[in-house]
Every structure is written in structure tokens, then in C-alpha cells.
Records
---
Amino acid sequence: MSDELKHECGVGLLRLRKPLTAYPEHYGLQQMALLMEKQHNRGQDGAGIAALKIESTPGEPYFHIEKSADRNPLANVLEQVWERPFLGEIFLGHLRYGTFGGQTIEACHPLLKYSVCRNRTLLLAGNFNLTNSPAIFDSLTRKGHHLPNRQDTTILLHQIGHELEKALDAGNPIEGDLAMLLSKAAISWDGGFLICGILGDGTAFALRDPAGIRPGFYYFDDEVAVVASERPAIQTTFNVKSDAVKEISPGTLLLISCDGKTVEERPCLIPREPRRCVFERIYFSRGNDSDIQQERRLMGKHLVPQILDAIDQDYDNTFFSYIPNTAQISFHGVLDELLHKRNFRFGQVVLKDAKFRTFIADANRRKALDMHIYDIVYGLIRPNQDNLVLLDDSIVRGTTLRNLILKIVDRLEPKKIVVVSSAPPICYPDCYGIDMASMGELIAFQAVISLLKKAGKESLLHECVGCAREDLLKPDVAMRNRVAPLYAAFTFDELCHEIGLLLTPDGLKAKVTVVFQRLGNLRLCCPDHTGDWYFSGNYPTPGGNRVVNQALVNYCDKVNKRAY
């Protein structure tokens, strides 16, 4: 992906099911470190590991936590935990991408709600965002809680802790009633989440949202029980086949008993229509998952007819390439399909230096050079004769394309540049863990505003903003997506053409055409991942419509403020 896109975090939970003496020294920590390393793509703004030792002597700590928000947080955390005793039967790890809040160690997971009574202690980490955090915060405040901040994780930690305290005060057994306890806490959560936690007595759990928006997988055998955000991370760490790793069902609690003997799924939240995040398949998850590999190749295959139309079927004078690195798998799908047709030329024209950002320590100087992370390969394009097809996995803001990539490939003097996105146009913001950008930064939204002005339909924008303001006074369930009518006013081809115009930098010699995946084809490629609200505007929870309406109002208020 050429645009920088921060996204949801990665979590890992590991329970050793036998006594520590049955394992090599540091086995649990080694496996936890590998599990996190295999998910490092999911978070580079912070990292943390907690270890809980069940058989510990009073007077000594029964858990350890190490966190870092340094420039290389995972490496820093692992270095720290190896330098001191970090033993336990249960490990909880987290990799953070800073979708909201500052990049500080206070924002890193796991979070701790400590008590000298072990069964009242709670460690929590998760991959999530909630749309209604302010309402939950206010509810806890009315109950007498004074939370130190308004971060989602802090709110969830204290809300679960509140229900935990109530249950213990009533004399209820926590392990047998944990599903009921968590359902009381989570019934008000509007968002996508995979929450992992450890109670001080050794009970461990993972809870997935009712629509399955955020991913979660688990595996257990006689020696270990493990949870992670991605299936291949578990496969690699424990050398197991893909069918041995199970998906945590939406709305389900995975419960690991305090003695480690029982691992079971329990109903917790009422399941909704499954809306698994499709961006996991397009970009976020690592491509070594067998299903994701196949789906991304299918995305490339389904784009070929549109690509060939964009180059007027001119194979002889076209060079096919991609923007590194995650678009490579979809590019293989393009090649698979083209090989059935005729001879053609392909290769890598754009290079990405993965180490470029780290060799300069000074942040300001490094930022000045970040835009040069890409380079080009000379001698593959015949000047003024060849079309150049460049496949990307998605286009969010289009900033890097416009300001860098198109300018440097134009030096090769292609006749035409066809930028291809394996994803449809991203028309709507996300609110479930992905920092897509504000509404005004989305290139598709900029295009629809441009089309409204050209067509003299600006009154439609004012009408939609007015409806959004009215909706924001209603309960979430009564709201509608008021941005959708703006896109409905134009055809898919009109929107794509306008995006192409906006992406073309001044002075570019080559003609630019943009090709996007059609939403119907994406659904054919990823039939089990229907969470496509970024493209369709069909949000899986009521809070989604509130977020998109607020985004529209914020955009227009900002525009009006600039006008004055």
C-alpha cells in the first residue's frame, strides 16, 4: 500500500497447561516472543508483555509487565524481559498501532487493574475500537468511578473490573460465571473487538465482538492453549496445520480455566450477522495465510478485464508491475490470468527501501527523507511507447501516489500510467480499529465533492449535512448514513475518472487512468468477509452511522471555518 495506513492491533495469549517443570526453561517466554514477532505487522507504535505465575510465594510479585513505546518497541520489550526473571504459566502480549491517542507507554497494553486479592486483579489487552466510549465513560462516572483517562482500553478495563467486583462481593464463583460477567460488561459495547484477559487467579479468556469484525483464532493441545489475531502466527509458532487452528466464533467467550485443564467456547453475546473485516484480506493480515493468499490472487484475477480495457487490449506496448510490497500477491493473480491470454512483459518497476526510515536517528531529518523511500528501475519501459500498469492494494488518501510515485515513474516516460487498486474506492471512514483518515482526506470523498461542484449539485451536500445534524440528535439506532446519497448521485466510472484527475500531479507528462476493483467482484473473492463498510457505507453496528454523520458535519464545519 502506497498510503500510510495505521490499523488495528495484534494480541496474543498463551497458557502453559502443564507445570513449569515440564517445559524447557523460558519456553513460554520464547513462544510468546515468536507469536508476537509473527504479528509485528499489526503494530509498531507500542508493545507489551505480561506474565502471570500461579504458584508464587506471598511476599513476591505474582505477575510481571514490560511495555515500550520506543522507536522499535517490540525489540525493546523483548530485550527487557530477557534481562530479568519473567516466568509464568500465562503470557499476554500486545502490539499497538496508535489509531487514537498519543504514542506513549501509558497507551500501551496490557493494562492492569491491581488488587492485593488475586481474584480481583485483571490484566487486559485487545484489538478494538468502540464508537460509544463517551457514553460508557459517563455511565461509569455516574457509578462513582474516577477514570484516569478516556482511552477505550481504560474504559473497558474498569467496566469489566466493576462487574468483577460486583460478582465477588455477591459471593459468586467467577470462573463458572465469567461469561455472564463479561456479557453484562460488554452488552453496551458498540464496535469491533477481540479482548484478551487474565485474572489474578489464573483464569484466562478471549472475547470476540458479536459481528466478528475483528479477527481472533485459537489452538490448544495437551501442552498449550493459545490465542492470536492471525492464524499463521499460531501455525508458525507451534508448527501446526491450518485446520488445527480454530476461529473464535463471533460473540463467543473462549475460557481457559485457572488450572489450565479446560479450554472451551461459551456463548456470551448475542451474535449478529457476521461482518468480518474485509480489509484484513486485502491488506492487514499477512499473506502467508492459505485462504488470504488465494483471495488476494482472485482479486488480481478479477481486475484483468478492466485493466485490458484501460490499455485498449494493447499487450505489446504495455508493461505490468505493482507497488510494493503487499500488492505483490494480487499482482500474481493478474499474472495468472494474463498467462492464459498471450505473451506480455512484466516486472518490478517501483522499489521500496524498507530500511530507509530507520538509518537516520533524528526524527525531523528522517521525515524530510521519508518521501524518498521509493525508487524506480530503469531500462524496462520503452519511452513514449509503453503503457505502465501499476497495481496497488488500495488507495486511501492518494498522497504518496500523487506526490511521489507518479512523479518518479513519469521519469521513465511511459505513454500512459494505469494505476490499479485491488480494493474498491474507500468512500467512508472506519470506526472499528483502523485509522483510515478524516473524511476530507479520503481521495474518493474529495472526488465526489469535486463532481458535485462540476455538476452544480452542491445543494445536495448542504441537504445531507442538514440531515446529518438532525440525526446526531437521535439515538444511534435511528440514524442513517447521510453521506451515501452523495456517492449515489454519480456512477462508479464517473467517480473513478474524477479520482484519476485528482491524483494526477501538475506537470505530469503521462496520461493517468485509475482502475478500481468493483465491490461485487470483491465479494466474490472474499465471500466470508462481508465487512465492507469502507466501500459500501453499510456499517455493522448502529454507532457506525453516527461516526460517518459526525465526520460529514466535521468536514463541512472545517470548510466553513476556512471560508471565514
---
Amino acid sequence: MKKLFIRAIWVCICLIPTLMAIIVYNHTPKTPIQSSEISSLTWEGPGGSTAQFWMKEKDGKDFISFLLDLNGNATPIDKLPKDVNTDNGYTATFVTGGVRSVYQYYFSTVSPSNSYVVDPEKKVFRIDAADTIAFLDSGQSADLYPASAVPTLTVVGETLSASSVNWTYYTYSGTGRTLNEVNPDIPTYTASYVGITLSASRIPDSSLLVITDDSDQVLYKGSLADYNASTTLKKLIRKDTLLHFTLEADWKEQEGAKYSGNASFCFDVQTIFDPAANFWLGEKSVELGEFVVLSGEFVEELSDLSFSSSPAIGFSPTFIRDGDLVRALVPIPRELAAGTGQYTFTVTCQGKEYPLTLNVTAPTHSEAIKTYNYSQKVNTALRTEANLAEFGSLMASLPATSTLYASDSFVLNTGEGTRAKYGQIIHNTGREADQFRSNGLAFVAYADTKVTPASGGTVVAVTTTSYGGNTVVVDHGWGLFSVYYCLGSFGEKAVVGTYVTTTDVIGYGGREGKGVGYTDGITCYCEVWVGGQPVSYYPLESQGIVIGTPN
């Protein structure tokens, strides 16, 4: 019995160190390793950042010691609270010899006392609030502050770091921590000329974006907010081009933002000029009897183009080249069968359809009846279908030219007085059967009255027709013509191929009773034609030719 007792005593003595270790571990499991035993620490943040610390280096030794002290000051609890976001934690891997000890840390930036550490045995401890605050104010806690994220720029879908940045964010205690980064690399991206999209991860309070080409020509200088590739570069790029971008951006400290700083971004973009066709109308709304300019860009072959309208307008325009663009004038007949309403013009280019919408409204100008009794002076036999067709054929035979001569507003010659305007009903003989609608401006012109063009252009016809008598046609470009007829005689500038302006004389009025064509002898006419049919001159008087801008 005595031997058994002695043996029991020895067993207890032998177990004392183990029991003491268990007791010590249960009460102080927070420091299972000594700083002197640790060689390195791997620190992984919730944002994916990873840092390596070495005990032989001062910064590493300080941080490792800080964590060990933090562990030692922590208080054991039963389990990790349910409201802890385990996706927002740090992982610390201590390396002691060849052994790795992994700890998990969960810090709260809202309530420091609700921060926790989980040791390698999955035991949970509440971190002392003072230690939490010390960590939250350190540079290792950046992942916990969204404001610490240095701004980046997304270029054609790829993330670009700043070439240089000075960035300050504020921690739990209001301490400002500044990050300075330098990246000398200037990357080159490849994109279509309209695909150079730019967006900042944080919208700057002010910015200056400068875009230059290889010849140092400045293509854009303005804010990032105002930059838009489809409008900024679309009008400038006409071939494959290497562009150089420099962006200077500033972020001011604002209440609630908890950050401030500035950054520079430098990069190049090799643009690929492979644009899709684009079409637009000069106006969204016109009146019956007017015309609209149809423009297009990035069209390789005119033969690839076709036109249709719904409802139908009974006209298919002819496209012409205007430098890099294409143009077509589309008249809207005054007596359009479908009348007013919304029309859809569809331009087809290489099999792809491009719909354009035009609103057509009723004429707003006067349609008052003008009655004159010139039965003894007007040869009514001259106004026949055949003679009108001859006159119309002359106008329809004139090809559209690629040069736009007309500029500014049209100034129509009113001679010695106006007798009828576009759209008015005229009774030249006093008989209703002889009435007709004026296609232009009828004005009094005696033998010495000078007739001048309404705008700049080239004389393309000097002729005599049965209905129009002495006739001069001026080409204003793109298929827009003005015609002057029932002239008493031709002017010195009435020479085909001559460029004329509003001060040049192309004709004179007639003598009473001796006029040529359908006139009383002292009445001349000026009309504007597009596509072989007369159109209203009122818009040309008030605004000139409206071309519009690309969509």
C-alpha cells in the first residue's frame, strides 16, 4: 500500500508541469508563442492585401510585438458574436521555426470594444478597446477604411493606377494618413475612336484632361466630366492615330468624405478608325413645301446607300460627297399626299438600316389670293402642261454638286415691289380657271430693274423656255438651285460657269406688254428648287441652310 502511495505521489509530481501548462494555457492562451521565437509574420487584409514582416527588421519587430501584446491583453469569451462580419477580418500567420500559427482578427471601426481575435485552437477573445483603437489608427488598418482606396482610372474597361498620387484618408480617431505612390510606366491601350471611355473610381472635384496626337496638336482640353469620346473625338479622328492622355485630378476634403488628395494619370491609346455609318437630319421639324438636309458620315461608297420614307414622299434623294461626309436634300412637297404628321426616313447602308424621324407641319405663311387683270398682257396660251413640263425638265436635269456655295441667309430680289409670294394663289387674268399657286416670288421689274441672285452660287443655265422666257439658273450647291425667269434681258454675269454673289447682275426686267414668257412684261419671278421641284424660300430667308450636327 505504501508503495502504491509513493507511486501516486511520483505520478502527481510528474504531472504537475502538465497541469500547470494546462492551467496557464486556459488562462493565458493568448500568448502561446514568444516574440523571441518568431521569425516572420504574414499579414493578410480583408481587401486582399498581403504584407510580410520580419522580426529582424524594426518595423516588423514593432508590429509583431504589438500583436502579441494585443493577444495578451485580450479577454476570453465563449464564442464569436453572430453579428461579427467574418468576411472583413485579418489573418496573421506567425512563423516560429518551421511551425505556423494562424490567428484571425476582427476589428470594428464603429465600436472598438466589439473587436475579437480567434487563436489557432479556435478559442475566441475580446480585444481590449485601447488596442483596437491603436490598430485602427495605424497604417495596417487601411483595408477597413473605404476612403483609403487610392483613386484609379478605368480606361477602355481596364483599371489604371495613377502615375503619381498624394492621398490622405482619416482613421477612427481622425488621424490623417497619407499615401504617396509613383508609377512611371505609361501604358498603351487599343480602342476604336469612339470606344475610348474614361471613368474615375472617385469622381474628382476638379480635373484637367488633355489629349494630344503625335504632332502635339491638342485635340481636347477640358474636364473629365465634359469628355465624351463619341462627341469629343468622333469629329476629330479620321484615321488610325496614337493619342496621348494626361489627367490631373483633385479631390477636396469634404464633410463625410474622410479623404482628400490629388493624382496624375498618363497613358496612350492607339485608336482604330473603323467607324459605323451615321446619319442625321438638319432639322427635326419642317413645314409642307420646305426641304431638309440629310447628312451622313463614314460612308465608303455612295452606291451602298438607298432611301425610303414612311409614309411615302414620292421622292428619292441623290447623295453627294461633301469632303468626308455625304449630303442629300430632301424636298417635302407642299401637296404631299399623306399631309402633315411624323415621317420616318430610312437610310440603308451596306444592308443596315438607319431610321430618322421628321415631323411635318402645315404651312404658316399666307395663302391669300392675289388677283390681277392682265388679260390683255399675259399670253395664257403659254401656261400649258407641256410648257410647264419643259420648264420642270430643265430644273430636274441639273445635277447636284458637292460644293456648297450658299452662305448665311438668302436675300431674294424684290425689284420695284412684290406682287406674290410663295404659296399664294394668283389670278393673272381675273379668271378662276387661270389661277395657280405661286412657286416663288413674283416682283415688279422694269427694263432698268436689276435682277441679282438670292445667294452665292454658280450660273449653270442661261436659256429661253416657252413658259419662263429668258431664264437664268444659279446653283447654290448640294442640289439647291434658284431660278430667275421672265427676264427682259440677260445681265452681264449671266454666263454659264460664272460664280456670282448677291451684288452681281444676272438679268433685267422687261418692258410693259413686251415680256417674254408667261408675264405681263414687268413681272419677273424667282424660285428655289430642290430635286426637280420648287420649295419654300421662307426658311432660307430666315435661317439659311440648316445642316445640323451628328448624333
---
Amino acid sequence: MRFRQWASTGAPWIWLNAAAVAALLLLVGGLVLLIAFRGLGHFWPTGVERIVYQDESGARSTLLGQVREREEISRQRLEEAGQEVPGEALDLQRILLKTGNRDISGSDFRWVLEARIVQRDKPYSAVVVERTEWGVFIGHLLGVRQGDSLVPGNDSWGAFQQAIERASRLRAEISELERDQIGEINHQLEQLRLRERRIELDGGDNPVALEEIETRRQELREQYLVFEAQLETYYEQIQRDQVVLETVDGQRVDLPLANVIKAWRPNEMSLGNKIGHFLAAGWAFVSEAPREANTEGGVFPAIFGTVLMVLIMTVVVFPFGVIGGIWLREYARQGWLTRTVRIAVNNLAGVPSIVYGVFGLGFFVYALGGSIDALFFEEALPMPTFGTGGLFWASLTLALLTLPVVIIATEEGLARIPRTVREGSLALGATRWETLWRTVLPMASPGIMTGLILAVARAAGEVAPLMLVGVVKLAPSLPVDGQFPYLHLERKFMHLGFHIYDVGFQSPNVEAARPLVYATALLLVLVTLLLNAVAIVARNRLRDKYRGLET
């Protein structure tokens, strides 16, 4: 009897809903923790182990590497693969060893059965070298060659670190020279070519302008030769020094310091040094450009492209979505036509995103972009300017995709405002527009902001439509730079979601790319939460401001 009375109060449903929300929060939190653990572990300086391994024939070999994973594998699976397994255990442990040196051995990962390990230790002198290509090198330091002199291994670690710093500075100067000075010259040469092409399209009867163009082109070429000579000097300096390394099997390798990014000895690092290395590696991941088919380096262009695309999408979708919702709720006559439009908007919210991508490709890129090229960029044809995928078309496509969400949220927000508020405003002499703009719309703004939050969350994670309208594996330059008009909406861009897809499914080195998938996924979650947090704070402030007026 008491249970029936308790159930009639509705309390069981409250507790059931609370339990469901708690379970969902635990699942989401557990997923984020798993992603963070698997992704952030990639930046920790794992110790290097030397393993003496005995294969099926009894021959022994020595491996040097970092233990990345450990898993249990069945004897049956190994026997089906044609491997002889020692002992009688049904399940065996094996470890994934990152041995590096892909340019020497052809592979930088290897699975090793723990049952076949004869001996293992951690050599104090083992060194890990991060390179600009071919992944990391794991071995021992023999010395540093600076010009014609060789600093031997016992005294070379300090000289090695100094040489790495000098090479890093030279790489930064080379990058700045190529990106800024030489890049600006190439940009001006391209503008001169377009001016010349425009004169040809207009009839070519302007010898004075053509002569000015040729004079300016010659000046730019002379400047280019000066910068090219300076660039060659930098390359000679950076190629002068080499580091002499040795693999675990005694093979000697002379590695130019131009290819070395950093080096560390993980087995001798203290906890403080490891934490410092972890933070530096994490910062490099979020602030540098990718390398090695996106399996090395950072993801800064993808972060920048994701945030910029979402911001442009928000600027486009918010006013149109709010205006659409206002028209449907406040101005449209509530008849069969309005009901049909409302049903169409609701149905558009469920259309697969790839359909929007196909529409964006056909309408925005080919039709609208092609027309813009024909009208305003004829001198650049047949190379398209806006007639190809780019940041602007991707933002418009996602704005179209999320437009129904904002319209529906705006309508629901307006519907929550009591009719008495409108009538009171009109009774005090306000016009219909003044009532809407100064009273109803501010009170409905929390609901409208909820729609914007949902739109941002969906847009930040979409990948399928972007693959058709502008996102690329690797963008040569950011959409924002120092060249007029500074914001280049026609450029292709990188996106965190597509970066995850590319690294996870298109990478030639699966084992090396796996931790980067988790790290990039964690970044995408954090970026989405950050973008949503701004809108949530604004919504909560508006809700607190107008809470008393809604009752």
C-alpha cells in the first residue's frame, strides 16, 4: 500500500530519470578519460628497454625500443598463424615494442611474445631522436661531428643539445624567409601575372601598363635572387653538423642535424624532467603543423580551421535562423502553408549530412562559385578561385545543415513567452515591432541560445559534407595571413574531424597513428566544449536576467 502511494507521487520516475542521467554522465566521463589516457600517453617519455629475444629456430636477437602496448593473445591464434609457442599456457602475453629506425629496418613497431624474452634491461645511454622524417631513431650516441671535428660520445651530449638548438633556430629562419619574404615575392609576381592577363582580356592595348608590369617583375626577380642566396647560406649552415648514432645491432648512422628536432634519454630522466618533456610535447602537438603524412608533428592548422569555420558558420546561421523562427511564430498566418513550411523545416533537421555536402558541392561550389569566377576572376581562369571547395563554402554548407535546429529552437523559445506579456506591451502603447524587439525577443533569448549551442556542437563534429566542399588532408597555408584581404575565404583548410578520419583510416603507419587518433579526438572534444561553454554562459546570464518575467 505504501509503495502504491509512493508510486502515485511520481517519485519513482524522478529517481529513474536521475539514475539515467547519472549513468549517461558516467559513460561520457569514462569515454573522455579513456580517450585522454590513450592520447596523452603518447607524449610521455616512456623508458627504452633492451630485449634479448629468441625466435622459433632458437636464434637470438637484440631489440631496443619502448613498450607501447601489452595484450593477451590465445595460443590457438598464434598456432593458426604458423608460430611455435613455448610452454603449455592457453593464453600468452605479448608486447608492442616501438623500435623506431624505420628507414633502416622498414618497420618501427614489432610484437614480441614475453615467453620468448630471454633478458631485458634499461640501458642508461639509450637515446631517442625525433626527426623531421622517418619517425624516431632509437639507439646510442657515438658523437657529434661539427665541420671536420668530432666530439666523442662521452662528452657529446651537451654539444648535441646545443647543435639541436642551433639547427632549430636555422630551421625557423629558413621557414620565416620562405613563408614571409619569398612568399610575398611569389604573391606579388602572381598579382602581376593576373594584371597582365586582365590587360590581354581587355584587348592588350596598354603598352605603358605592360612596361610597368615588366619593370616591377624584374625588380621582384632581383629581390628573389638575394633571398635565394641567403636561403642557400642557411641550408649550408644547417647541413654542416651531423650526429653519429649506433643501432642496437652495431650499425653506424650519420644523421644530419637538419633532420633532428629533439633528442632525449628517457632512462636517465627524473620525474620533473619527464613532466617537463610531457608538457613541451603536448604544446608542440597543439602549436605545430603535421608531418609524415599526419602521423607526426602537431595539429594547429586543423584546430585553427575548425574554430574559424564554426565561427563563420555561426555568423551566417544565427541571424537567418532567428529571422526564420520569428517569421514562422510571429508574422506568418497559421494556415496550411505555414504548417507545411514547419514540417519541411523539421524534416530537414533529419536529412543525412552527406546530402547537404552534395548540395553544397553542386550549388555553392559549381554554380555560385563558378559564376563568381566568371564575373570577377576571369583572369585567373582556368584555375578556379571560388569555383572549388573552400572555407566559405564549407561554412555555408554547415550553416544550411544547422539552420533547422536554430529555427526550431527560436520558435520554441518564442512560444514559451506568455501571451499576456505581448498584450501588456501593446496596451502600454508599444508597436508590434517594439514589443518583439524589446520585450519578447530578449525573454526568448535563452531558448535561442540553446539552438545555437546545438548547432555549434553538430557543426564542429561534422566530417562527411566537408570532404566535398573544402577540407583537405594538408593545407599549405592558413586561411588568415598578412596578405590582403587577410582573411582568405576561398582557401582550403584542415579540420580536426577529417584529421581523425585521415590519420585513423588512411595512414600508412597504423601503429604510429593510433595514439594520435585519440589525442586529436580529445582536442576535438575540448574545442567543442570550449565553443559551447561561451554560448552556455551567455544563455545562463540571459536566463537569470529574464527569469522573473517569464512567470
---
Amino acid sequence: MTGGNFTAAALARSGALRSADWRYRLAVGWREPTAAIGVLLALLFGYLIVVPIVTLLHDAIEVQFGDARRAGAEVGGWTLHYLERAMFSPVAGDLFWEPLRHTLAISAGAISFSLVVGGLLAWLLTRTDMLGRRWFATALIVPYMLPSWTFALAWRTIFKNRAVGGQPGWLESLGFTPPDWLAYGQVPITLILALHYTPFVILLFGNALRRFDSQLEDSARMLGAGPATVARRIVLPMMLPALMSATLLIFAKCLGEFGVSYVLGLPVNYDVLATSLYRSIASRQSGVAAVIAAAIMLIGVLSLLIDARLVRQARRFVTVGGKGAMNRRSGLGILGLPALALASFIFAISVALPLLTLVLSTIMRVPGDFSLANFTLDFWIGSNLETVALRSGLLLTPELWLAAWNTLRIVGIASICSGLCGLLVGYVVVRSPVRPMAMFLRQVTFFPYLVPGIAFAAAYLSLFAVPRGPIPALYGTAIILILALAADQMPFASRAGISAMMQLGKEPEEAAQIIGAGWLRRIVSVVVPIQKGALVAGILLPFISGIRGLSLFVILAVPSTDVLTTFSLRLLDYNYTQAANGVVLLICAISYVGTLAAQKLTRTNLAEGLGG
């Protein structure tokens, strides 16, 4: 045999061995229960996450019922009518371009404000000896724990004018009528979102500053650099990845923000993309709604993909010295009192004043009248009230308890499902030898994070509004809310499960397997007890997010499936301001207490990082 033939034969045998080895490992992998469970999970999340989005995109190019004449095609045929109407028609400005401009303007303002204020506060909390630093480290992130539209309701209570009718605001009751630009529209929406997302910057930027080595600053000062030069040439370049990440994440959140714009924009027809989508759905323009939702989704996906790329590039930045990092705090000296005043002012306008406003508004008969005789508990526990549709106090209203029951039932079931599925996803991703399936599960369960909630809700409405095969129409039922919420919370639940399973070795399971325990027994008796903390986190964190969530529910809920958030907005639409504010206070209390409980159970501290 010649040398060439020998080499070819050897290579052929080597290739055959590798192929046989691969087929053997694949066959063994598929015989493991993790493979079967992985297939079931992949099918489940493919249907609950991928199919709704594909259906939404399909609705954007399919002629809907009632649009055949305008589209010039039969119902069910393909068309570019909705894309043309939303993007290029005479009404495109009102439907898409003006809301897009408003969204970008609000996002730019909110990002700029939150970066400046949040960056300064993060530096004061992590790098200085500011008085009360530890207390402010927790107090200043409270707005991040509360629904963003809480502050919008407080703003409306104070600044509301006669432009939209109903009860006057506090300032108008005291004799001062706020101008429209201050009461509604871009200015208040921008300011409220900026205050809501300032804690986001404090968390991200503060975490980066905490890891920054003070020796780098010391070295620059030894070479004669002044404070401004050190900040511009040393600190900011190192912190740029964290700042860019905060910028893109805040933009993605502003993109899908609905509640604040609904409360302060919709009354004066100031639309952003989220409220324009809501209007299109409410007016039954499903094709146009699909185009707007697809645009929101595309912008959100692109922004978060850019953020993921920046995070990977940020690993090139080394901010900790090899001989041990130093995090020396600077003395503020005479600037101590101004720093304390700034932190106190931000806490007052972002937490204390809004919550105090909501509390006082629920116990005042006439808004803005602070005389003792004007205070009452009628809006909480009164009866035979003068209001037409709300004859009893909030706590005596059956609709409140129905909404509370719906909230606990729907959000509770969805959270339990997402928590259990998250743990199973973590188990399959870490344990399964079939890596392509594990990678698919890892990616598909994270995808809802890339899609703004309002667009994800529109996708579910598109899929489940009509019967499809054996699946009946689910719109108007609690099932669609449970499915949508469970799928929407999977990024958090699956990451909690994956993180927990990566820390659990195979030895406990192998020991149980040696004594004859089957897979199910190993899961119930070994994995779940060891990972109960992660399971609780995977349930509790989606529960907190679902309690204060609005975007999904405002699209998918109907009066019979009202939850606390939609019940509050319904009261607001009827101009029952005191009752609406009372419901929001209940939501805030549940959300805040739940967040603290989650931190205690998971042994994390939100003030020291995102913590989930």
C-alpha cells in the first residue's frame, strides 16, 4: 500500500470512528430523560414565544377581515397595505412618525437626566464619605421597585388642569393653573421616566465604580493631573461600557413604556409608540397595530443586541489591579452638605412626595383643600358615596377584591409555572448532552426580554384572538393572561434556574442513582430541596414583576379578568382619582414588600448590584 493510500484509509477510518462516536453519544443523550424533557420544553416555548411573534409579523402582511376593499385583495391574501398606511400614507405621521419622534425625544431627555443625576449619585454613594451613604444606597433605588406610573398619578394629582375636565389638581384648587406643557405631555413624561430610571444608573454605574481601582487615580495625580483631567481621561473611559449599557437598557425600557404616557399623554393626544399601538388595537386596526408592534420589537431587539455586544467588549476593560484593588473613598469636605442636600432632594421628589401625594389624595374630599374638615376615610371605607359608579369606599367595593383575586390567581399561577419551567430549563441546559437543544432553550427563553411588553401582548392577541386548529380563541379568558405572563417572565426564571444548576454538581444525583432512584425521584428528593432557594427566586421575582405590570394586561385583560393595574386605570378613566390612587398604593405596598422578601430569601441586596 502506498503512502497516499495508507493516509487516505487512515483518515477514512478516523472519520468513521468520529461519526460513530458522535452517533453513540447522541443516542445515549436521547435515552436520558433530560433529552425528552428538553424536546417538550423546546416545543412549549417555541409555541409560547416564537409562534406569537411570527403570527404578529404575518398579520402585518395578511389582509384582515373588513379590509379587503381598502387592501385591494381577498381576506387572507398578502398585502403591503398596512405597512404603507402606517409608514407612508397621509395618516402615517399620526400613526407612526410623530409617536416615534415623541418616543425618541422622551428617551433622549430621560437618558440624559438619569445619566447625569444617577452618575453623580452613584459616585457619591460609592466613592465618597457622604453622610447617610448606606441609607441612601437603599432609599434612592426605591423608585425602581415601584410601578413607573405611580409617579404619573401623583404628578396628575398635583398639576392637573381643566384641559381634560374632571376634578381639578391641587395647584389649580389653590389658585394657580399649571400650563398644559407642565401638566401633560413631553415635559412631565420625560421627568418622571428620568426619576424612575435614575436608580437603574445608580445600580449599573455604581457597581462599576465599586470595582474601579483607586490606584489608577492616584497614579494620574502623582503625574500632575488635576481632578477634571482624572475624571475625563481616567474614570470616564473606564466607565464608558457601564454608561453605554445603562443608556441602551433605559432606551429599550422607554420604548415599551405605556403607563406614564397613558396617564399624562393620552388625555391631550400626545402619543408615543406604545400608546399609538394601544389606540390601533382599541380601534380594531389589527394590521396597522401589527406593523407598529413589529417596529417597536425591531428597535428593542436592535438596542439590546447592541448592549450585549458592548458588554462583551467591556470585558477588555480591566479596572482592577493585579495586586489587589483599592476602593478608597474621598472626603467631601465643605461639599458634604450640598451632596447630602442633593441626595435628599432626589429622594424627596422621586419617593417621598409622590407617595405622600397619593396617600393624601385618597383621604381628601376636595383636592387641594388641606383644612382638617376636608379629610375623610370615605374613599376607603365609606358607604353611600355621591359618585355614580362607585357607591362604597375602595375596601368595601367588590370589584377591588375581584381584581385582587384575579391578580393573585393569574400572577400566582403564571409565576409558579415560570419558576418550575425555569428550573427545568436550567436542568436541561446544564445537564443535557444534546448541546444544540440546550443552546436553543437558553436563547428562546431569553427572547421575551428583547421584546417590549406592549408588543409581546399584541403578539399574543394576534395568535389567540381567533381559534387556530385545536386551540380555541383564548382572548377574554384568564388563560391567555397566564400564558403571556409566564412566557414574558421566562428570561428571569430561566436565568435563575441556569445559574443555580451550574452551581450544583452531579454527585448528589449520582449517589441517588446508585441506590436505585429514578429520574423523577432524584428531581423531587434531591434537586428541588437543594435548589429551593433558586426555585423560590424564580417564582417570587416574576410574581413581583407581574403584580406591578401593566403593558401585558392593558392589551389582553377584559372587565371580567381585571387585575389591580387595569382596575386602577379604569377608575382613572372614570375620573375617580381618589380610588385609582388608592389601588396604586396597594400595588406599591405589595411590590415593595415582595421585593424586600425576594432579597431576603435570595440573600441579595439590590443596593449592591442589580440582584436579579
